[in-house]
Amino acid sequence: MRTIELLKPRPGLRVLISGAGAGIGAAMAEAFLEAGANVYVCDVVPSALEKLREQNPTLHTGVADVAVREQVDRVVDDARAKLGGIDVLINNAGIAGPTGEVENIAPEEWERTMSTNLNSQYYFLRKAVPILKETSDCATIIAISSVAGRLGYAFRTPYSSTKWAIVGLVKSLAIELGPSNIRVNAILPGVVEGERMDRVIAARAESTGVSFETMREEYLRKISLRRMVTVDDIAATALFLASPAGQNISGQAISVDGNVEYL
Predict the structure, then answer these.
(1) Which among 193, 194, 190 has a CA at the least distance from the CA of 255?
(2) Which of 153, 159, 219, 262 is the catalytic position?
(3) Cα 165 from chain centroid?
(4) Which residue, of 28, 78, 161, 221, has the greatest Cβ tally within 10 A?
(5) What does the pLDDT average to over 103-115?
């Protein structure tokens, strides 16, 4: 059935994913590999990449701090050489940043969050967009934002600011790159199950003076479906956006969050 075929990414798709040593990035890498894509991932933690490569021997990897432009330049060049081009760029790398009142956030923590979450997206784009224009007939850019990119998020202002900015970047690039047949979309994950979310909940619980369990229940009450999403939910959305079924989807900020009502 043709409709089912449209849901499958093109075999041999060349995919570059940043910050993919674990979590959402690793789940997307494994999903694209399973779909027959050629995948290159980078991460700042070498041991995470080694573990991921042991589980997926055909995976290409490179170590990079995405907040450093020269390191991003190096991995994009390496990805192009090893993959023979780039069809899909997934700007996934990001950090949670500090939790606290804005007047108590250290400038260096603010700047590190901006550099890792936002500047890195630009660093990858400036290098990868020319490659996407030259080598691909199904070029796709996917930026990982957050539900905090559509809702205000008290005590998490650095993080939320970057995630709102990513949505603006995507909306603008979709217009700019559309004539070059490059689609640009953002995925906005909600509360994602896992160790990283546990750390976020713990930090917020501490900053507000409540227990971890109380804060976790508070997060769930904010979600219409009363459950967290999984990394596989995000990976499935990325696969869809990179497939022929998503060929006319661009400029969208797609929430995968069970409908988070407020933060």
Answers:
(1) 190
(2) 159
(3) 14
(4) 28
(5) 98
